[in-house]
Design a protein that fits this description.
The complex is a heterodimer of chains A (246) and B (78). In chain A, helix 1 crosses helix 9, helix 3 runs parallel beside helix 4 and helix 4 runs parallel beside helix 6. The two termini of chain A are 29 Å apart. With 246 residues, chain A is α/β, with parallel strands linked by helices. Chain A is built from nine helices and seven strands. Chain A has a single domain, classed as Rossmann fold (3-Layer(aba) Sandwich). Chain B has one domain: Orthogonal Bundle (Non-ribosomal Peptide Synthetase Peptidyl Carrier Protein, Chain A). Chain B has four helices and no strands. Chain B is mainly alpha-helical and 78 residues long. Classes of the chains: A alpha/beta (246), B mainly alpha (78). The interface between A and B is small, with 6 and 4 residues.
Chain lengths: 246, 78
């Protein structure tokens, strides 16, 4: 379904990003997956080749413009210009606002939101020239609902949705679509850090009564990246077991 | 090395997907060559790349015809 496409997936060493990268590769895309460490990048590249898929693992710190430049030239050189960009890399620095430090705020906004600006910009020219492209931003249910202790994360994720709508309007004439997938609570390292009591409380708010699997986010991303998703742009697809119905 | 005029016209042909004979010196990118706002931005970026110069937004806005692009490059080239 995605043969001939080149996908760039940030934060691909584990969790949702890994599942997205593997799912795109399974559909025939050549996938560049990024990780913040050399070990993570190699681990991803090995997983990809073990499964018999095309692609590469790259080191990228999405918070650093210079690192983005370096990774972009590597991708373009090794695989070609990306036709699918999945902005997935993200961090949390949870704290109640009254206790939140400037660096906790700045780190989350820079890594989760400014990176989307920089990477989208870096990929747009070649997409524009090709008259096709897919930008898929991994937001969060928290960006739509809010969450105590995550003002920084929620602001970044809500910002991502506004960014998505604006860019979708800018580049629609080039057949480039820009969308968000907003996961609810997914069973990953990030949510495994939550205290037991909070996990139980969360479960009671989810109609489907379970956390999601990374593959269930990946399938929404694959859909948006596929020819079948071509007429959807500026949209946020919520994948959250019903905990938030937009 | 080809002249500034030739290089500018070549970029315009490539960026806007128009025929070479349409790219007269007086041609306006938007009115005559059918460029939209995104095309004009990409055109300026292509000029910046070709001539290794940076064109500030306030100058870029004033470049609306082929001749104006050529004049700008001639005036700002090292």
């Amino acid at each position: 379904m995605l043969k001939g496409e080149i996908a760039l997936v940030t934060g691909a060493s584990r969790g949702i990003g890994r599942a997205i990268a593997m799912a795109l590769a399974e559909q025939g895309a050549t996938v560049a997956g990024t990780a913040t460490t050399e070990a993570g990048a190699q681990g991803f590249e090995k997983a990809l080749s073990d499964a018999g898929y095309q692609g590469a693992g790259l080191v990228l710190n999405v918070g650093e413009p210079a690192s983005i430049d370096a990774a972009m030239s590597q991708v373009t050189e090794r695989l070609g210009a990306p036709s699918i960009l999945v902005n997935n890399a993200g961090i949390t620095r949870d704290n109640l606002l009254m206790r939140m430090k400037d660096d906790e705020w700045d780190a989350v906004i820079n890594t989760n939101l400014s990176s989307v600006f920089r990477l989208s910009k870096a990929c747009l020219r070649s997409m524009s020239k090709a008259r096709k492209g897919r930008i898929i931003n991994i937001a969060s249910v928290v960006g739509a609902m809010g969450n105590a202790g995550q003002a920084n994360y929620a602001a970044a994720k809500a910002g991502m949705m506004g960014f998505t709508k604006s860019l979708a309007r800018e580049v629609g004439s080039r057949s480039i679509t820009v969308n968000c997938v907003a996961p609810g609570f997914i069973d990953t390292d990030m949510t495994r850090e939550l205290p037991e009591a909070q996990r139980d409380a969360l479960l009671s708010t989810i109609p489907l009564a379970r956390f999601g699997q990374p593959e269930e986010i990946a399938s929404a991303v694959v859909f948006l990246a596929s020819p079948g998703g071509a007429y959807i742009t500026g949209e946020t697809i919520h994948v959250n077991g019903g905990m938030h119905m937009a | 090395m080809s002249s500034v005029v030739d290089r500018v016209r070549k970029i315009v042909v490539e960026q806007l997907g128009v025929k070479e004979e349409e790219v007269t010196l007086e041609a306006s990118f938007v009115d005559d060559l059918g460029a939209d706002s995104l095309d004009t931005v990409e055109l300026v970026m292509a000029l910046e790349e070709e001539f290794e110069t940076e064109i500030p937004d306030e100058d870029a806005e004033k470049i609306t015809t082929v001749q104006q692009a050529i004049d700008y490059i001639n005036a700002h080239q090292a």
